[in-house]
Amino acid sequence: MIREKRYDVTDDLKNWDDFELSQKRSNYDGVVRSYSTSFEFVNNAFILLKKEYRSRYMEASASVIFSLRNNNWEYDEVFRCALDFSTYSEDGYVVSINAIDNTLAAIIKAKKSIQYEYPISDIQIRKLNYDGLKFQYEGKYTLGARSFEDGTQFISIYTLNTNVSFSMPLYKMSNSELPSLNSPLLFDDSPMTDGATLNNAKPFLNALSDIHIDLKFRTDLYATVYSGWIEVIRLTFGIRGTDGTIVKEVTYEGNQGYQYIDETIPIDLQGGQSVCFVMMVKFRDNSELTNRANIVFPKFSININFKSRINILNIDVISPTTVLNSLLKSMTDGSDEYKGYFNYGMPDGSRNLKLERTYIMAAESARGLPKAKIYTSYKKFCDWMEAEFGYVPVISGNEVTFTHRDNLFANTVVNELGMEINDYELAVNDSLIYSSVKVGYDKQDYDSVNGRDEFRFTNEFSTGLKLTDNTLSLISPYRADAYGIEFLVQKRGEDTTDNDSDNDVFFVECDNSVPVDQPLLLYRPYSADQLSGLLSPDTMFNLNYSPRFMLEANKEYIGACTGMLKFASSNGNSDVSIDGVRETDDLLIPERLFTVGEVNIKTSDIDVPSDLTGLVRFTNQGEAITGYIKNLSLNIAKEKGSTYTLIVRDIKS
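^ thats the sequence. predicted structure below, dont judge the formating
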């Protein structure tokens, strides 16, 4: 077909015998059509193509349409493809030219690894009411006193008075870990002030809202007295109300001898209350002497431990369907005729509700950047779907549908070849034999002690096989670490500061039962009693994305080579248990999708099964063998029979 005009060139294709149509299952997912792409034309087709090329040069356009006559002697179109004039060559008699497979499968194959960027403002989004994780924080104080040469701190007293009081000099340490957003506490330095009491000393801690703290106070102290005698050294923490009155005191008393204090003081602060710290030294009454002494603190620390959670804020999230269709549109140069879908049905008849609750989040959206973008490729999207959900793409015409891999290996026999087979050969596909399985997500480094609680990193399991050193990698390129999201959210306001995670893609499990015009909520299906090994089980989210659930989603595929996975190691928090199942538990795999065997046969049967996910069965030397199509090749013009490569399901005598 040249510029919409058709020509019959059936007798002008020189290399009919070389032309084969194939159905291939390349990655244990959907079956995709392919064909040989080099054509040699003679006679009238040679003249037509030569004229088109000479007259229009690189704007030349032609397509080949293949049709097959049915039993009613009518022709059914098998497929069509465009010719690629950049491959045009001729020797005066024969035009050689390749085809461009402009099907969606060919486009995806060529462009699947290209990374695209999408401004969040240009794609359809929903809002997530993000209420975050309850974090463990620690404010650290040191004593701001004078020091001896060895670093030991001391406070000098030189007075005629019997009683001396002053606020303790406290200074916040730089290695404190404090909230960067919505902190319930205000930490401040408190200089030493002579004559200060609990009523007027500058507080070092102010409560902005109701909060429970654990004040850990540790010190040893003694007095070196040069003149006079110390009867009492009193250290007092005071909780001061909004009206200036002291509502609580915690006091430690001793004399000039050695003291050791190591206590944790639980304190419930109300918004507006504050904490101050004063020292009182009482000397024995002696009006004839000036009292001189050093109060020495060889080791001193005050740590304020508390848990805090950010205020609720909105984050833009995107449905996987939106991301998929955006990728298809980019790969097809803006065409709207290619569509992507999800098959939420599972092999057992249930519905994949977890996938329906899943939304994608750009790192820049979590940070609240004003021109946030999401960065991804089709390959990353596919790798995520497979590793996380066990879903793989099925391409048909102009549509791609992601479905659970188990749906693509049906138990129904769709083609009976009987005994009419030749060239039988059975072999083991050792690429399906794994000695280990790595599952989860790439390890992330956090600048926070809270990050040690994260368990959505990589776990490794042993299959127990020693035949190869192959490792099956089920590592998601998209991230599900809740702490990673929280740390990005807490960087809001740092608009000009780049972050190593800004190009990352996250995903979250949301409660999508709310109306579409209302914000989504984080989905937390487990009670605190069902979880262990976590700092804050009541606020943890994305629990259903743990490496354990990723194994469950792919276990029958893994079962091709083993019936048991034994835990080997983890680079995250390995103490987590979800609903009684530990992330480090071994995984029993009672069923498999298929075996590691593959069989090659030839048959005179040239019919393509209507259902390419079903079983093909044949008999060889008294054994019934069933398997799934891995490759089916046939010549559509010559009755040369078909060649099958089958993934063996079972062999029965």
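The longest helix spans residues 43-56.
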